[in-house]
Amino acid sequence: MFLIADILLICGAFGAAAYCYVLALRIKKFQTLEGGMGGAIAVLSAQVDDLTQALDRAQTSAKRQASELESLTKRSEAATTKLELLLASLHDLPETPAPSEEAEHDNMERRLRFVRRRSASRPHEAAE
Fold first, then answer.
1. What's the CA gap between 44 and 67, in Å, rounded?
2. 31 with 37: CB under 8 angstroms?
3. How would you write the pLDDT of the chain (128 residues) with one tens digit per residue?
4. Cβ proximity of 14 and 20 under 8 Å
5. Which DSSP symbol is given to 36?
6. What does DSSP assign to residue 97?
7. Would you say 36 and 29 are in contact if contact means Cβ atoms under 8 Å apart?
8. What backbone phi and psi angles, to 5 degrees, belong to 27?
9. Which residue stretches of the chain are H helix?
10. Looking at the 3D structure of the chain, how many domains does it have?
11. Which domain holds residue 20?
């Protein structure tokens, strides 16, 4: 009976040793940087660093654009006040009389008229 118990105990010890060996191999594969979880963690870490740098660049660009927009807004407000003053000063000018029909007819006669002619070098030009 003791002999059978000792044999079973030895078989259990060998089984536990084989199980530990298999687990050790799996843990080594799991921790390798080339193909295991370590590689995935390294790639994700690099991507997080890249995204952090891109976010920093985007924030600085947004701050710069906001300051430019603010300066342009201030310039447009200043131009608006100048235009309002100019419009207000135009209301103070006397009204000019409307041009008569006769003056318009004279102006129409004075207009230059342009005539386009085709050149004689290409008498049969095809339409495109």
1. 34
2. yes
3. 889 999 999 999 999 999 999 999 988 877 766 666 777 788 889 999 999 999 999 999 999 999 999 999 999 999 999 999 988 888 777 776 665 666 666 666 666 566 666 666 655 555 54
4. no
5. S
6. P
7. yes
8. -65, -40
9. 2-31, 37-90, 101-110
10. 2
11. 1-31
Note the pTM of the prediction, 2 decimals.
0.42
Looking at the structure, do residues 16 and 43 belong to the same domain, yes or no?
Answer: no
Nearest to 31 by CA among 18, 40, 22: 40
Q: Taking a C-beta distance cutoff of 8 angstroms, is the pair 30, 23 a contact?
A: no
Convert 94-116 to b/e letters by CB count within 10 Å (16 or more is b).
eeeeeeeeeeeeeeeeeeeeeee
Same domain, 80 and 38: yes
Domain-embedded: residue 118: no
Assigned token pair, 67: 């300051």
Determine the Cα–Cα distance for residues 2 and 10; give it in Å rounded to an integer.
12
C-alpha distances in Å from residue 86, one per residue of 21, 72, 78, 81: 91, 21, 13, 9
> Do 43 and 78 belong together in one domain?
yes
Q: What is the pLDDT of residue 128?
A: 44
Whether 32 and 39 have beta carbons less than 8 Å apart is answered as yes
